[in-house]
Amino acid sequence: MSVTDPAATDAVVTDARAVEDRPLRVAVILGSVREGRLGQAVTDWFLTTAAALDPGLDLDVVDLAELDLPLVLPGWGGTPSPEAAAALADVSPRLAAADAFVVVTPEYNHSFPAVLKNLIDWHLREWQAKPVGFVSYGGLGGGLRAVEQLRLVFAELHAVTVRDSVSLHGPWSGLGEDGVPRDAEVCAGAAKGMLGQLTWWARALRTARAERPYAG
User: Fold this and answer.
1) Residue 146 in contact with residue 105, Cβ under 8 Å?
2) What is the pTM for the complete model shown?
3) What are phi and psi of 74, to 5 degrees?
4) DSSP codes joined into one string, 85-131
5) Could you list the mean pLDDT of each consecutive 10-residue stretch along the chain, which spans 216 residues?
């Protein structure tokens, strides 16, 4: 028979409440580096929309065009090159500090950009037991095929992808040439649904990780 220490129980409850009360930190990953990309305009639209929907979010933009991560990964047990270490010193702590992620991605040849996969592969624990939402854009499919492949990748990394996503189809329908949605009301509604799921999972998983660290 075990006896629970009331003081210890109170401390756990207090810590859990402190975690719950912190603003949610969401890393918004801009996953395109192509010249003339629409990703910046799409990201700016999403940031404005997200801030209006939930002013309490702490949004941190990770622009892969500003990150020079090498393509060559070290072998198992190896250490990154000095160039890779310098790049990781900037981005890895930001991913680790995030409670959730939103990936803004185009669709290239029925998939997502190589630079985005490179960022993902350079990290492991930073993704674990955290939720991921998606904003995709491009063509008649709106980037949805890229999102479906990203779901498989993040599942392997023990992340939780939320069901609803934001897909901007254009230029024939929803996405203007400037990267801003033509039907702002419909797209804002999609963002609201995705963010609602993302923030629910972010709070639930953040509390769970505080009470019992994930051992995936």
Assistant:
1) yes
2) 0.89
3) -70, 155
4) HHHHHHHHHHHHH-SEEEEEEE-BTTB--HHHHHHHHT-STTTTT-E
5) 52 57 95 92 94 97 96 90 94 98 96 97 97 92 95 98 92 67 88 98 98 91
